[in-house]
Amino acid sequence: MTQTNAVRPLFLSFDGIDGAGKSTQRDLLTQWLGEQGHDVVLCRDPGTTEAGERVRDLLLHRKELDLHPRTEMLLYMAARAQLVDDVVRPAIAAGKTVLCDRYLLANIAYQGHASGLELEDVRSVGKVAVDHVMPDLTILLDLPEDVAFPRLGKNLDRMEAKGVAFMHRVREGFLKEAEVYPHVVVVDAAQSIDAIQTAIRSAVTKRLKELAR
Ligand code: ADP
To answer: Where is the Thymidylate kinase-like domain (predicted)?
Structure first.
């Protein structure tokens, strides 16, 4: 059957604790979406823009810096504001499908649930940073921290170096948020790479159908 329907672009983000398989699944999904006719733009948050990449370096690689959770949160938000204005909003306006490695949900889990900032404060600052640009769908790859942590190797970045107990709080935070926000779909990331990809594709297909209504 020939596909005659115009492709509906999508803003999709991946989230979950480090080592859950975000990069692996994002690459597979990018290929599939391309085959479906989507013009895919990849981005990572923090990062992608020049300013955002510098902030990313500060946040993840300057381990000598002792950043307070509030400082961390604001730096992530600043990088995100730049990403929205320079990359995400223009891509959506041009009819492209955006796949973003992490987004606002990560701050709510990491600096809110796991580091103790008031969730409503993080959400309020988040509102300013995203300026109404929110994902149509967030794939939350859920994996126990004791499975994810050993996957990270020896060279841990500043966030990964916070350890397994911290990752546990992040994971719990993500799951609590998923109960609140219907655009967040939890995928069991303890399955095989192929099985996870199948679950992600079916979540994407379902969301595209909902958006087409
Ligand atoms: P993230 O981007 O979330 O940090 P990655 O995609 O980089 O995660 O995966 C972390 C490591 O785990 C990589 O070495 C990857 O090959 C491996 N991995 C990813 N998905 C699976 C899976 N379903 N089962 C086993 N290993 C996996």
So the answer is: 14-200
For residue 195, give the ligand 1 atom closest to its CA.
Answer: 23
Q: What is the pTM of this model?
A: 0.95
Q: What is the pLDDT of residues 160-175, one digit of tens each?
A: 999 999 999 999 999 9
- The 10s digit of each residue's pLDDT in 100-121 is 999 999 999 999 999 999 999 9
Q: Rounded to whole angstroms, how far apart are CA atoms 134 and 13?
A: 9
Q: Which atom of ligand 1 is nearest to the CA of 24?
A: 6
Residue 109 in marked binding region: no
Distance between first and last Cα of the chain: 22
Q: Which residues contact 204 (CB under 8 A, 6 or more apart)?
A: 10, 12, 29, 33, 137
- Would you give the DSSP letter of residue 113? I
